[in-house]
Design brief:
With 382 residues, the chain is mostly helical. The chain is built from 11 helices and no strands.
Amino acid sequence: MTSLQQIHGQIEQLHAHYDMRFAGHARVTRNPQLMAAMIGELTQLQKRLTSIRTQEPESHAFVLGLLFERLGLYRQERAEIQKIQKVVGKAGVAHAQAMADANFILSRYHRHFGGAPRETRDACLLGELIGELKATLERVELFAAELDDTPTVDPAADVRWFQEHIQTLTTEQAAIQAAQDVSDPDTRGSILAELANGQFDRHRRHFNQRSRISLRPQLLADMVANLSDTHTQMQRLQTEHPFTGDTHQNMQVVQRHLAAWRNGLTELTELRAAATPSELMTGLITAVDAELGYYNTQVAGTAHGAQTVVVLGEICDRIGELARQMAALCEGGRRPQDHDALARARDARTMLSRSWAELVLAMEDAESSVAASGADVGLSPG
């Protein structure tokens, strides 16, 4: 590979970094120092490029033109970031980050609840999302008074936005619970089996083959509580209707999982309690890198289909969970590099969540096109 090709590759690699850390994000939440570092890297590449003697003048001119185009973009972006952050101040930056966190919570709602039958949905998970929205609303309200006179921010409107979404999700949670509260014992048994399978799948997504130091004990405790509640309902159903379907066998499966999860929770709690904050942060950073590597091998550049949507959604959930733990560790200080790692995890979370939504939309459009094409040639409804 020639030096010209290497420099071209480095320019594209740097722009991939730009795509994850800056493109599509609210400028107010961006780090101008990170952009300055990227400009510095590009400037060094410019010096190398101008010193190259090449027998490929057209290729050299193309790469040089691309470099100057990116350099101009990055400098303009940095200036815009500094401009908006000067207007809103630190309170505005914190407010914008809270809004970004809220949007990710809603993206999780769409991934797990959108278009799915209520009988099979996890009302407990929805309750967790509602709790996260309420906690994020508290962060927004904390800075509201400081932002009343800021022209680019309307904290009162954002508070109403939160309240409306919290009410919508709360109403949906009640509707899910009502849909699952059926009198027919066989149907009730099937619903409880689906709910248990949902917890098994959630445990697989977050805990199977993952570094234990990166796992949050409270997440596992929530799964234990949810599965335990399902087990209690199975017991009640078995008592009231002793010969209902596979309820007895399902209860045994649930009991085995509960025993294993409770033991795992005890071990995980002890492991995490013995780890220092720096060890925990290092474990989380390593886990984020592993998820991004998994994305690069399993999703990026592959044929997009229903399975890709599932895999990408799972990666989004796991990186979101890791970012949540990083944020908790960064509260009240921590090293600058830890805050940088948190920002990177949040940016990856946002980028992949956006990719998931775009992929789903593209698949829906493709299905609509096929359906329309079929109608044109007179296919039968059956």
